[in-house]
Specification:
1389 residues; mainly alpha; two-stranded antiparallel sheet
């Protein structure tokens, strides 16, 4: 605080223009004038330290201020001299000086002498040591005048003294004393150590030592030995008179009082003495003071003690003696400089390695790997010539840990960096293959990525040494590429809808930052700007490939291919890495400068010389199938990308050139052509190469003898050829539609018709039918069966595509077509279906849905690098193997679906397929399953969904015409309801078809015929007859069945937002190739429809007109048609809950109740409509049945809600506003108030919304659940009990207004006031107070109810039974409490 005063007027204030010299001059003038300063620097006293104000006393107390005055500030300024020349600064005052304690009787002179540090004071305190008992020794007489000069050579020959390292002079003196027979000086500390042989034990077992172990007796005079012994004997006598517990207590006190460093010092000194005393051993302090516990004998040779924290059962390596000169592989010579002294600690590494420790512990240990990536057991003793031992922390263990490999990869030696990267590549390959699942704990891949593996690989790619760079490429390929995944995708490529695939993107994207919340739209960052702001680490942590792209890995790979031109193995690794990146982000590869141009010119040349060897030294200038596969994967990303590849990069010329290449390159060329044809592109090549394609197709059925087996590549070539012809046929089928659209466009933009017409593909059908007949004939040949089963799906898919497009052509002749179909079915399909090989394949059909592939030990997958996990298929090859039942069954039922749509009269001929035990068992296993959706399961689940859809399509056509099939109609409908919420993105067309044809089909409700609805109504009456709606359940079900067509229209209307996805999916499934935009499916984010889709109209109406964020705001009138939509939704829910309960098994009961409550929240009077009332009553009773009520959990937040309490608060507000005492709405409000649920909802009713009790008039007979659920167990919330009592006393809760909660409050209060349980004092006081207040109530009816309540009875008019008079125990308690109160009042009076 500054205190301003009047300054001298003669002195002027400094000006801003004054220089430093002017300021100094003015300062000197002011100091010389002696004037008073304008301000004083003062210091505020520290009240916490008890500082007092200055004791001047001249100023009154009220004028004192909290000021701080610097009293030691000198009047003269210090001289401006350098710090070296300046006088030393004054010492700082101690902050603790004032806190020191001073006694009144303390002599100041003694205090000064005590703290006097002058040399005279120090010398005056020197006390001469008693030397009376020290023997005097005369100096040794010598014949020389001077002592002999000590030479270095003689000093080096002397051995080391036990005392440790000493100087040459000290060692010479010690040797001379030993030679003369003199001991150590008396100045050396001595510790008397008892000898084991001479020690005796007393009766209690404690060792009796002849002297003290710690006290030497120095300085005690001539009788020091006797005094030391007397002290020791006194200590021993005290120890003998103490019990074991007293000794332990004293030991703990002693250890607590002593400095821990002093204790450690004493123990270390004793251990040193014990180690240097030979056979004699120094006991630990615990053993020295322990009484009554005999010491166990110790082996004389035990030198290594197991650590206290070592696991029991682990064998420690024995300590080896120090290395000797004889143990060295090369003995040092005297002439070697600085090699004449042996340093054992530096030569330990030359010893033989100790044996590995044998551990029987279950503790986790660090994993070590060999150069092939295999885990080395810690107990395995491997020879050293394998090169797996190194000078690490555990040299006796073979192998390298991940940390050591990371360290080795940054070595300056090229060989070590290459070795580390190659070993990491092997580890990554085995981790991706799932080799470590049962041997290692945790994820190897996740650990490596967290440690910065991708940064290590990216740095290594920039290495100037080609071997290191090649090893880095190999490791990058092992990290990104899964050969099993690529193999499965290639196998499924010719399957039905096999070209479509999900992009391998991480499904759990990181949440966006919320830094721009509250900013204007113009100030918010775009998604691209946010992405640029992220660091490489942040991007790679969420998406590994995106992180690599951000680190410009594509530019580096292009440099390697273009400039380095590495070996064939590295080229293939680079191409496989590019393929994996293309499945993630194809546009990044196409946009990388010169990358695709390099691939096209170097590895897909238009002309090349045939290689002279099977393994050429270089792949440059030769066709590489991996490069063609890269083009195919890129083309699958979209029709524009495919057009760019065909036209800009020269892919069209390569297609025609590669048809004459080797089978491997030819297969990939045909696949690329098939992808282009799926967009309606490159079809002009079909007309140019028609003869070549037909010859290749005819050669596919060439008979093969056992000596000439058909290679797998040939099978793949035939499959790719049939897939190409299938896509060309689809494109030709669209020619007529596009041609008509072009003629009718009248100048508007329209798609051009493809260059191939329908007449150009009709000649393929007879050839394929002939090949199919030949396949059926060869099925019985065991040598040809595998080949035939592999090719059969492709033939069936082609015929299905041909006949699906045939009916759309103007040249379609129905009579001729029907005759062809009958011939095809009789001659080909029926023999095929009845063939034992096909039957056996169908019997192997196993549901991936109910037996997920994730059950098997899977590969090491991380969320930032998704994979298909196809390594599991090695344990179950029937899923995606060569003879997979999914491929054959999907193709067969696809053809049957097309044929039966053209000729309905042929449908019954295939009923045996659906009635087979294998198909029925397969369908039953799918009902009630809940598959998990991920990249590891979606790729195979998509094909199973398609198979189930085709099965249901055939069953839908057979149910009306076949009585045996109709018996299983309920099963087919359950499968359809289960399949609908399973369908993944890209299958929206299948969902639309299911909703349009099967889901709302009345023929699939066999329960609706006869007395089914009435039987359901009777069973419901048996459960709860009191709360049955007036109209009954049977009529509601029958009415709902009759309204199924309108219900279907309602749901299709509410799903209209999926129309673009449905159209895109339809183009893919129907083969509308000119309209198809991409073969990549939408990003995998979950099923297309939610599991609670039947509640969709209610949820949509609530979102549009309902409550915002559960705050209970009143809404206006509902939109037009909302009443009808709600009624139709409730009708469908009633049908599903009554007869298809398993269809909604994935939706928790709490979520069902929350969604049904939207009936009350979406409008002010919608729930009062009679149809809504009846249907909601029926559903509410179904959801609160005895079995469902047990599973109802309101503590877990329902999906889509933060908590159920928020929804309940909205319900309370809405009830207070618009309920009009509706019983149905009241039952919804009463349901969460049951005793088993949280007390917060009961507190909300009796605390915040107590006014609701006036209109909550649900009678005991209308209550759909037992009253005991509200009254048992007794309430333990004291605030709630007080609210109960207040509501009853104030009249807010009356039996005539709210009979249910009146019974609840009375029951809980009665149980509380008469409870005999031991409770805390606060609760007991509240219990006595409530009982006392109850006794003095003026309302006799309420008083009798609270005191005489007995048990709840729902059929009783009161709702409970009562005692005629208080039981003796209760009367005694009431008398004691009320009597004490009256007695206290009398005493006060």
């Amino acid at each position: 605080v500054l205190m301003l005063e009047d300054a001298d007027g003669m002195i002027q204030r400094p000006k801003p223009s004054d220089s430093e010299s002017d300021l100094l001059r003015e300062q000197e003038e002011f100091l010389s004038s002696g004037g008073r300063p304008a301000a004083n620097v003062a210091r505020r006293p520290e009240k916490r330290r008890g500082d007092e104000a200055d004791g001047d006393g001249g100023e009154p107390q009220e004028n004192q201020r909290d000021v701080v005055t610097i009293t030691d500030l000198p009047d003269d300024l210090p001289a401006l001299t350098p710090a070296s020349a300046a006088a030393p600064a004054p010492p700082k005052k101690s902050r603790f000086k004032k806190e020191r304690v001073r006694f009144e009787d303390e002599d100041p002179e003694e205090l000064l002498d005590k703290h006097d540090t002058h040399i005279s004071a120090v010398l005056s305190r020197i006390v001469e040591r008693d030397t009376s008992s020290v023997p005097v020794s005369f100096p040794t007489f010598t014949t020389t005048a001077f002592p002999k000069v000590l030479h270095r050579s003689t000093a080096e020959t002397q051995g080391k003294t036990p005392g440790g390292r000493k100087s040459i002079f000290a060692r010479q003196i010690a040797a001379q004393n030993a030679k003369e027979g003199r001991g150590n000086s008396k100045n050396d500390p001595k510790i008397i150590i008892p000898q084991r042989s001479g020690s005796t034990r007393d009766a209690s077992g404690a060792a009796a030592a002849p002297g003290s172990l710690l006290v030497s007796g120095q300085g005690l005079g001539p009788d020091s030995a006797a005094e030391t012994l007397r002290i020791h004997q006194e200590n021993q006598a005290r120890l003998e008179n103490m019990s074991q517990s007293e000794i332990v207590d004293e030991q703990k006190k002693l250890l607590a009082q002593l400095d821990p460093r002093l204790v450690d010092f004493v123990r270390s000194r004793k251990s040193q003495k014990a180690s240097s005393s030979g056979p004699s051993r120094l006991q630990s302090p615990d053993q020295l003071i322990t009484k009554g516990k005999p010491a166990e004998p110790e082996p004389e040779s035990q030198d290594v003690v197991m650590d206290a924290d070592e696991e029991e059962g682990e064998t420690q390596p024995e300590a080896q003696p120090p290395i000797r000169e004889e143990d060295l592989p090369v003995r040092p010579q005297k002439e070697w400089v600085h090699m004449d002294k042996l340093e054992p600690e530096k030569l330990e590494w030359t010893r033989d390695l100790p044996a590995p420790r044998k551990q029987s512990t279950k503790q986790a240990m660090q994993a070590r790997f060999d150069f092939s990536g295999s885990v080395i057991p810690p107990t395995q003793d491997l020879p050293t010539h394998l090169g797996l031992h190194h000078h690490g922390e555990e040299p006796e263990l073979a192998g390298y840990s991940l940390q050591e490999l990371f360290l080795l990869s940054r070595s300056q030696l090229t060989q070590q960096r290459t070795l580390a990267l190659n070993t990491l590549a092997q580890i990554l390959s085995k981790a991706r293959a799932g080799v470590y699942c049962n041997t290692l704990k945790g994820s190897v891949l996740s650990s490596l990525l967290d440690a910065g593996l991708i940064f290590l690989l990216r740095f290594s790619l920039d290495d100037g040494v080609e071997s290191v760079m090649s090893a880095a490429v190999h490791a990058l390929r092992a990290l990104l590429v899964s050969p099993d995944d690529e193999e499965c995708l290639d196998r499924m490529f010719p399957w039905l809808m096999g070209m479509a695939a999900f992009p391998l993107l991480p499904s759990g994207q990181e949440e966006e930052e919320e830094d721009d919340e509250g900013l204007d739209e113009s100030m918010k960052l775009t998604a691209k700007e946010k992405e640029l702001r992220k660091t490489d680490h942040d991007v790679a942590r969420v998406d590994v490939i995106k992180g690599l792209l951000k680190m410009q890995v594509l530019q580096r790979l292009r440099y390697i291919l273009e400039v380095v031109r590495p070996a064939p193995g590295v080229v293939l690794d680079v191409l496989e890495v590019l393929i994996r990146i293309a499945r993630h982000s194809a546009s990044a590869i196409l946009d990388c400068p010169r990358l695709m141009e390099t691939v096209m010119s170097e590895f897909l040349p238009c002309s090349w010389a045939p290689p002279t060897s099977p393994a050429p030294p270089s792949l440059y200038g030769l066709p590489v199938s991996a490069a063609m596969k890269l083009l195919r994967v890129l083309a699958s990303a979209g029709r524009h990308t495919c057009s760019r590849i065909l036209n800009s990069l020269g892919g069209r010329e390569r297609l025609s050139r590669f048809l004459a290449a080797e089978p491997q390159e030819l297969t990939e060329a045909l696949r690329l052509w098939a992808v282009a044809a799926s967009y309606g592109q490159a079809c002009s090549l079909y007309t140019d190469l028609y003869s070549v394609l037909v010859k290749a197709l005819q050669a596919a059925h060439k008979p093969i003898t056992s000596s000439e087996p058909l290679l797998l590549l040939e099978l793949h070539r035939v499959q790719a050829l049939l897939l190409l012809l299938t896509q060309v046929t689809h494109t030709a089928g669209c020619h007529q539609e596009l041609q008509s659209a072009l003629l009718n466009s009248q100048g508007t933009e329209s798609l051009p018709p493809p260059p191939v017409t329908w007449s150009q593909v009709t000649g393929l059908q007879p050839t394929v039918i002939g090949l199919l007949k030949g396949c059926v004939m060869t099925l019985d040949d065991p040598s040809q069966r595998s080949r035939t089963l592999t090719l059969l799906p492709s033939y069936l898919i082609y015929l299905g595509a041909f006949y699906s497009q045939l009916s759309l052509q103007n040249s379609f002749q129905p009579v001729q077509c029907l005759q062809e179909l009958e011939s095809l079915i009789s001659d080909v399909l029926l023999p095929l279906i009845s063939n034992q090989a096909v039957i056996s394949t169908a019997q192997n059909l196993s549901s991936v849905i109910c037996r997920s592939v994730s059950d098997a030990p899977g590969p090491d997958l991380v969320s930032s690098l998704p994979g298909l996990g196809c390594v599991r298929l090695k344990m179950n090859p029937s899923l995606a193997g060569p003879g997979s039942p999914l491929a054959l069954c999907s193709a067969l039922f696809y053809l049957l679906d097309v044929l039966t749509s053209l000729h309905r009269g042929l449908t019954q001929r295939f009923s045996s397929l659906l009635l087979s035990e294998s198909v029925l068992g397969y369908l039953k296993s799918c009902v009630g399953s809940m598959p998990s959706v991920s990249h590891a399961s979606a790729w195979i689940l998509r094909h199973e969904h398609l198979l189930l859809y085709l099965l249901l399509r055939l069953a839908h056509r057979l149910v009306p015409v076949d009585a045996e099939i109709a018996k299983h109609a309920a099963l087919f409908h359950q499968v359809a309801l289960a399949l609908l919420p399973w369908l993944l993105p890209g299958s929206e067309y299948l969902a639309h078809e299911l909703l349009s044809t099967i889901i709302f089909n009345q023929e699939l409700f066999p329960e609706g015929g006869g007395a089914g609805p009435e039987a359901a109504s009777l069973s419901e009456l048996d459960l709860q007859e009191n709360s049955t709606p007036p109209s009954g359940l049977g009529p509601l079900l029958r009415l709902s069945l009759s309204h199924l067509p309108s219900i279907r229209g309602c749901y299709l209307t509410f799903l209209s937002h999926l129309e673009p996805a449905v159209l895109s999916s339809r183009d893919r499934h129907l083969g509308r190739t000119p309209w198809l935009t991409s073969q990549l499916l939408p990003e995998l984010s979950g099923p297309s429809l939610p599991s609670d889709w039947p509640f969709l109209p209610l949820i949509s109406l609530y979102e549009r007109t309902g409550v915002c964020e559960g705050r209970g705001q009143q809404v206006g009138s509902v939109p037009a048609g909302a009443l009808q939509a709600v009624v139709q939704c409730l009708q469908w829910l009633l049908l599903v809950e009554s007869w298809r309960g398993r269809a909604l098994s994935a939706v928790p009961p709490g979520a069902k109740l929350a969604r049904l409550s939207c009936v009350f929240l979406c409008s002010t009077d919608l729930f009062l409509e009679r149809p809504v009332q009846d249907l909601t009553w029926a559903l509410f009773r179904r959801l609160t049945g005895p079995t469902c009520l047990q599973d109802l959990d309101l503590g877990t937040p329902p999906p889509g809600l933060a908590s159920f309490h928020d929804l309940y608060s909205a319900l309370l507000v809405q009830y207070e506003a618009v309920s009009f005492g509706d019983p149905l709405f009241g039952c919804f409000v009463l349901l969460p108030l049951q005793r088993r649920y949280s007390a917060t909802m009961r507190l909300a009713v009796f605390g915040e919304h107590v006014g609701i009790l006036r209109s909550l008039g649900v009678s005991l007979q209308q209550l759909p659940f037992p009253l005991e659920n509200f009254t048992s167990p007794p309430e333990d919330s004291l605030p709630l009990l007080r609210l109960y009592f207040r509501a009853l006393v104030t009249g807010a809760l009356r039996r005539s207004w709210c009979p249910v909660l009146y019974v609840v409050a009375v029951a809980h209060l009665n149980a509380f006031i008469f409870s005999q349980e031991d409770v805390p004092q606060e609760v007991e006081a509240a219990r006595r107070s409530l009982l006392r207040k109850t006794h003095y109530l003026t309302d006799e009816v309420l008083r009798s109810h609270l005191l005489l309540y007995r048990l709840p009875q729902q059929h009783n008019p009161l709702g409970f039974s009562t005692y005629e008079q208080l039981p003796p125990l209760r009367a005694r308690r009431l008398h004691v409490i009320a009597g004490n109160e009256e007695r206290n009042e009398g005493d006060e009076g």
